[in-house]
Write a structure and sequence with these properties.
This protein has about 40 residues and is mainly β. The chain has strands at about 15, 20.
C-alpha cells in the first residue's frame, strides 16, 4: 500500500498513572479487521 493511501485514525486514550491504554476493535474503532496485536508487559 502506498503511503499516500494511508490515513491517521484518532483512538480513544485511557490515561492512568501507570501509563496510557488504547483499545481497538476491528470494524468498530478501525475500518478493517485487526490481523495481529502487540502486548507490552509491565
Amino acid at each position: 500500500m502506498p503511503l499516500e493511501d494511508c490515513k491517521s485514525i484518532a483512538l480513544q486514550k485511557i490515561s492512568d498513572t501507570r501509563g496510557n491504554l488504547s483499545i481497538i476493535e476491528g470494524g468498530n474503532h478501525i475500518p478493517f479487521d485487526k490481523i495481529g496485536y502487540d502486548c507490552i508487559p509491565a
